[in-house]
Amino acid sequence: MPIDAAKAMAAEPRTGEIAWSQKDVQLYHLGIGAGVPATDPDELRYTLESRLHVLPSFATVAGAGSPGVISGLSMPGVDVDLARVLHGGQSLTLHRPIPAEGTATATSRIAAVYDKGKAAVLVMRTEVADEGGPLWTNDAQIFVRGEGGWGGDRGPSARLEPPAGEPDRVVERPIREDQALLYRLSGDYNPLHADPEFAKLAGFERPILHGLCTYGMTLKAVVDTLLGGDVTRVRSYGTRFAGVVYPGETLRIRMWRGEGRDRVAVTAVDREDAPVLADTIVEHS
Hints:
With 285 residues, the protein is an alpha+beta fold. It has helices at 5-10, 22-31, 41-47, 68-72, 179-183, 196-201, 211-226; strands at residues 14-20, 85-94, 102-115, 119-130, 133-145, 169-174, 234-241, 250-256, 261-268, 274-284.
């Protein structure tokens, strides 16, 4: 079979140096919709170097390397058709606030391979540390259709019970027509997000927004709405990608407060609240 679970799990981790600057952070923030209104003091924290703080989801693009989904497909024991691959989910654990510029060592490996019957799920884990110690851990869940059924561990269920009651806060965030074109400059140049012909070949009517762009937009909304704009309060953030978003649409972000643990659901307003992000949790101080 194209996925050799034992070989993938036993492979030596890949280690490399990454670096990022204030400009990289500012570009990422603009790519997820920061800076509107441009003179708003709350937005200047994302765009102005003299006030700059780093939204934790920047960790998914720091160093402008390949997203975990792409790098995971080149690991030993993994030989699959990209057309069968979906980014199933993303989780991030923060060990310390991310500095506005820095260098660090990133170590990546396949942390788990699960057999879901009709599909396989790879968990690509990237651990990042600098001279001060661990900074963050990123897990990308890679869903590969047609590669299950070998009798392996099914792994944990990604589905959670829906939050109880009405949300405590609901906000809407418009997505600009050029949002994907700007976000891709942070490192994910997959033509699915820019080339109309490629998008049609992939089965979409037009280019779709990066899932990790929606991921960043959602965390920013939670930080700004529930955490007083304090990015250092975020401890972890995980989600399951439940549907696509098209540039020009509007996200509806529902939030349920919890004790150090907020639940979030994201839908596309323009398509009758079609699910976009599900089973989303932000843990914080």
